[in-house]
Amino acid sequence: MRRFSLALVSFVLILITVAAVQTRKSWSHLVWQKNAPPAAAASTSPPVQEAKTLRMTEQARRNLGIQSKPWKPQSYWRVIEVPGEIVDRPGVSDRGVTSPAVGVVTEIHAFPGDTVKPGDRLFTLRLFSEYLQNTQSELFKATREVELIAEQRKRLEALAKSGGVPESRLIELDNQLRRQTVLIQSDQQDLLSRGLTPDQIRSVAEGTFISTIDVFAPTPIVQNQQPVSNDVAAPQQFDTLGESLAFEVQELNVQLGQQVQAGQLLSTLANHRELLIEGHAFKREASFLARAAENRWPVHCAFAEDDQIDWPTFDQTLEIRHLANSINPESRTFNFFIPLRNQSRAYDKDSQMFIVWRFRPGQRVRIQVPVEELKDVLILPSAAVVREGPEAFVFQQNGDLFNRLPVHVLYEDRLHTVLANDGSVKAGFYLAQSAAASLNRVLKAQAASGIRADVHVHADGTVHAAH
After folding, report:
1. Could you tell me the CA-to-CA distances from 371 to 77, 312, 335, 411, 417 in Å, in that order?
2. Nearest residue to 408 via CA among 423, 392, 429
3. Contact predicate 287/309, CB 8 Å
């Protein structure tokens, strides 16, 4: 009997266990809800609204360097950035000085780094030119022949009047005189082109031949100016155009005692007043550059390693002059060119003038070429906008409070961000011009602390919104 009772109890427990397992979905939530800890119940409360306002003290704003300005709709040019560099302007910046005749370099008057003015002596050559010696001899002979013909005509002129000699004799002498005069003029011009001065040519005509010759600095080509007349035969004074008519000896190509031929390069002079900005663009950017050049849209250039403190404000309007019609086979880029007028200052040392140029060949440039005009937009510095995934925000200042406002970004570059004027930011709002990322971090920190920045507590314990 006792064994039967134990078997019956075991069978009932098994039935209860099987039934509980099969119906656990209907009653398990009641057990867990009853035994759930208080924190789990709190999780079912509605979520806290995301903070959008932060409070910043005046000292904190100064530490971050935050400045706020009202905004109004503006226009902005979308640009493309192209690298470039400053180069010499061919045929203008550099000048080669050549030997006028065969000779030996006996003196060098200007060395690399020296500044010379038009007409300053650069070299003295001892002449070895047989052609130049023959020209001097022909000039002397023609001069003496003219004197002899003139004396003979003077003697025969009285006889011709009395009929002692025929008039044809005087005519023949006049023709000889004209021929010799033409030869004298030709020899004088030849000697002038060889670098002799008018005084030296007069000495040659009197019988004193020239055995040495000086080579002078030429006159630089000044853009948009009338060329200054430069008598090669005489040194020129430094005129009112200042540094634009000064050369720096860039390279010395001969040595003392070296024999040089006519036309051989003696030295290279440089005047960096007129330069070019050479941009390097890809073929896909050609249409943008061509449109900017055709419409004469001004471009903006950021010069690397440019010390703006010691120089006057650069206010030159830069425009694309022309585009190259060939592509570099190695870099697959083509060049375009922008004229650049340099700035300079001069100083004296050891009784000699030296020139310092602001822009130098080889200096790197970042060129911003306008592409499209965006109208009725909001323009802010790039540091005034912060991003969180697809969202972008700016901060409106209202006293010590900063409200985070969502915005739509139309375009952004290295310096500026362009926002749509879609009503999210009202005209006249004071917007922070920098440190948007820092403000966003402070906003999140204040929200995490549980203290709302847009409310304050009165002395009686009541809580009010900021006003």
Report:
1. 7, 29, 18, 12, 16
2. 392
3. no
d(CA 101, CA 191): 10
* 219-253 per-position pLDDT tens digit: 766 555 444 333 333 333 333 345 557 888 999 99
Q: How many angstroms from the chain centroid is the CA of residue 465? A: 53
Residues in CB range of 302: below 8 A, 6 or more apart: 365, 366, 368
Would you kindly state where each structural domain of the chain is located, as residue ranges?
2-42, 82-90+271-372, 98-268
Q: Read out DSSP for 226-291?
A: PPPP--TTSPPPP-TTGGGG-EEEEEE---TT-EE-TT-EEEEEE-TTEEEEEEEEEGGGHHHHHH
Which pLDDT belongs to residue 134? 85
Torsion sign, CA atoms 431, 434, 437, 442: negative
Tokens matching residue 12 = 């009932």
End-to-end Cα spacing for the chain: 88
Listing DSSP states for 79-127 in one string gives: EEEEEEEEEE-TTTSEEEEE-SSSEEEEEE---TT-EE-TT-EEEEEEE
What is the CATH code of the structural domain delimited by 82-90+271-372? Answer: 2.40.30.170
Contact partners, residue 22, CB within 8 Å, separation at least 6:
none
Query: Is pTM beyond 0.85 here?
Result: no
Question: Which candidate, 390, 459, 432, places its Cα nearest to that of 69?
Answer: 432
Q: Take residue 269 and report the two structure tokens written for it.
A: 């002079």
Calculate the CA dihedral of residues 273, 278, 279, 280 and round it to 10 degrees. Answer: -160
CA gap 179, 183 in Å, rounded: 6
CA atoms within 13 A on the CB side of 403: 14
Q: Is the pLDDT of residue 459 over 60?
A: no
Average pLDDT estimate for 197-225: 78
Between CA 191 and CA 102 the distance in angstroms is 13
Q: Are 359 and 272 in contact (CB under 8 A)?
A: yes
The tokens describing 191, both together, are 């000697």
pLDDT in tens, 117-157: 888 899 999 888 777 888 888 888 888 888 888 888 887 77
Cα distance between residue 90 and residue 335, in whole Å: 15
What does the DSSP 8-state code read for residue 453? T
